[in-house]
Amino acid sequence: MVDEPLYPIAVLIDELKNDDIQLRLNSIRRLSTIARALGEERTRKELIPFLSENNDDDDEVLLAMAEELGVFIPYVGGIEFAHVLLPPLETLCTVEETCVRDKAVESLCRIGSQMRETDLVDSFVPLVKRLAGGEWFTARVSACGLFHIAYPSASETLKAELRSVFGQLCQDDMPMVRRAAATNLGKFAATMEPAHLKTDIMQIFEDLTQDDQDSVRLLAVEGCAALGKLLEPQDCVAHILPVIVNFSQDKSWRVRYMVANQLYELCEAVGPEPTKTDLVPSYVRLLRDNEAEVRIAAAGKVTKFSRILSPELAIQHILPCVKELSSDSSQHVRSALASVIMGMAPVLGKEATIEQLLPIFLSLLKDEFPDVRLNIISKLDQVNQVIGIDLLSQSLLPAIVELAEDRHWRVRLAIIEYIPLLASQLGVGFFDDKLGALCMQWLQDKVYSIRDAAANNLKRLAEEFGPDWAMQHIVPQVLDMIKNPHYLYRMTVLRAISLLAPVMGSEITCSKLLPVVVTASKDRVPNIKFNVAKVLQSLVPIVDQSI
Amino acid sequence: MNGGDGGDVAAAPAGPPPPLDWKFSQVFGERTAGEEVQEVDIISAIEFDKSGDHLATGDRGGRVVLFERTDTKENGESRRDLEKIDYPTSRHPEFRYKTEFQSHEPEFDYLKSLEIEEKINKIRWCQTANGALFLLSTNDKTIKFWKVQEKKIKKVASMNMDPSKAVGKGNIGISSVSSSTNSHLENGGYKDKSSTNLINDFKFPPGGIPSLRLPVVSYNETSLVSRCRRVYAHAHDYHINSISNNSDGETFISADDLRINLWNLEISNQSFNIVDVKPVNMEDLTEVITCAEFHPTHCSTLAYSSSKGSIRLIDLRQSALCDKHSKLFHEQEAPGSKSFFTEIIASTSDIKFGRDGRYILSRDYMTLKLWDINMNSGPVSTFQVHEYLRPKLCDLYENDSIFDKFECCLSGDGQRVATGSYSNLFRVFGCGPGSNESTTLEASKNPMRRQVQTPSRPARSLSSITRAVRRGGGESPGVDANGNSFDFTTKLLHLAWHPSENSIACAAANSLYMYYA
Fold it and tell me: Which superkingdom (chain A) (predicted)?
């Protein structure tokens, strides 16, 4: 038996094998404590082998173990003993739960990147080879994520072997393994010498891009950009460009969708000239794709892509497509476009913006689908810079009013969130004329969330325009509403008061707000009285001691 | 009954293969004379896994029963081979009970005031990993992903603390983690502040504390543990009729009457609708989806059948929502032969791809049809399953039997097809070129006793009498003018062909019969 002060640790150790999963999980999370109690040597000789056998546990426990082992180097005696951590992680790399394997691979990479080179060669490289030759696909999947750690320190012959092993994984029978290989190709390629890059990796890449499983090809597209950046521009043009142009016309919409998402990154890799000749036509094709999903992805990248191009090219090729997209049959395409279109203004310059972009922008503001309008309004600060306040206020107001009265309360909620932003952009004068009434109207909305948001909105407006303005334009109207026959609306007033008080300062609070609250304490609805108590509590720090 | 003259089939040796001589192999859950069949015990799904080493059945009580093959030697083979499929053995497959688990429970949907039956509609096997078996099972609404694995039963042999003593010590607040169960917070955390601080404040000697020991664990025996890993729910407004795995190993589809959804096996809270045949106005509804299956190798191709007897092939590459089919297989009925029942019996109850993916087998009420996916003008062969029932359609309609959904299956080599019928009969047809093999078997220990009887010949009344005695209650078997007996209550709906050998598993009520040839 152990001494009294050691009980907690003794219990912690025993609970590594408790029947209750929560207790096991707790012990595993405190593995570092156990290791310190056992000392470095016994951790190496007893705890780690013990953990290596403990691979039959529940996934949650295994996941925690994989995570803990990743930071375990100090507890086994430092870098020179890091290799003892590999065996338990190796077994974790073979379990069938994906998240456990991923975490084990992550931890292995973390340990491997700290290990001494000789240790890497002696223990890490053999581990990668063992996993790659694993009997079950789970081990082979994990192996794919370890090559980029093992490769740099290996000898020439070993490097050649690793390259060929990776090549085999790319041709594995199991699509899961090929997918893992495709995912990790970019990382592995980054560690490789340029000479091999051009021969081995490009061959592998080409094979993957012709895989008959769509899911593998998809991941190969994702690798395109990473790979492109590693190659010399001329090699990139020769090898990657044809592939990507091909992919942009792939039969599978999912592949084209991926291309639409990745294309702008590739432009940087290939340089301006090939971009102009090859990638712009591809991109334009994607913007006009038959499949709405592809157009959504392409539309979302319009600004990023245009930024890479010269203004002339953008106006000549991209802008016509943007015009078409703004009246696309799919609302989601229009919505994606609306969320990014503002960014195009600086690219195109003032003239083109006013002439061409503005009409598109105005038509999107009148879109029948609220999300599209909201997306435009949410980028209002950018809009203001582009078209100026007068033009904006003319076209914006109808859109805002319409959204403010939308049937769906979530839409109303969204527009309320933007009101302070709008107010700051439009200025006090405009706001008083047009939007003030709306803000009050929301306080009497049928939906609680809207009333709550409206109260919050008043607070933010008061912060924006100052207490004097609020005293004039907000407080009287709000206080007026306390006479509303419906107790829920009276409650909203109380809420607004509690929010406004800190902004207004003690003087106004005492003279204007407090009397209303005190009156409300005699309300006939108990719920109001209860809320008055809550409001009063929040007012205490604001008002003077004297009251 | 000429098979397709396509490349694969033509490559077979000249002349049709000789008809198979079917023999009884095994029966599980055989009924004894006079035994009443419990509704919950009736088998509602049968499926072999890809290797043919395992067989799963589901029943109306929501249970899944697994059987494993016993006649193959396990030791000589590496696991990597087991991941792949098929290896020749000389003996016929024999199975033994492996394990069972309760997959679904009866539920009640309070929003729609609907009872959800626990009956297993379909079972599909997934990729094996680390010696654990994985399968999907579904009832009308919810799909579940199961893992069945052998687990070692651990026994902790030695600990630091005497377990009985540890509890006692716990009460003085030092080891609150182990003893005070009420230290559980609701979110699963612990409020064992006292012990945490104690450990953290404790200064460990550099060499560690020698008196502490790790628990020693001994493993004695193993047991099979079935765990539900994921639940894919709330994605279907109508009843799920089929699920099917994709060849990419990461996705599967589930189909109900009007929609087909695509899932990732690892993501249970999200699915994509890929086919939606629901009309804007439900009064315009003329056709529902009856079955859907992925192509065995082409990851982007799937087929679904409809209540009008058509099969549509769709290409997932074409668009995100595949309402437009890429191929339509439909046989026009002969003009003039139309009757009240034409539409009902045209409904396809099941479709299956052949193993190479070139042929699709479909079953409607009266026939089995084999389609070449390269020829959509009509089926390459049509097999009459129980033509002698045609005059009886009116009776079958009145007792609802006409809506029975019979399944069908193809042999691994694609040379034969099989499907079930009434009176616990099932039929095997040769579909290779020149083959006119057509066998009728009864799901009993003596399958061939009905074989001498072809539909046109009078039945031996003796067999029907003995069976009538055996059945407990229910309708008495009908005997038509020709003396053919048929019994609507004993129908053989579910059967499966072993993926690599001539072995059929079929369900007769609560019994699972296995045959080989």
Answer: Eukaryota
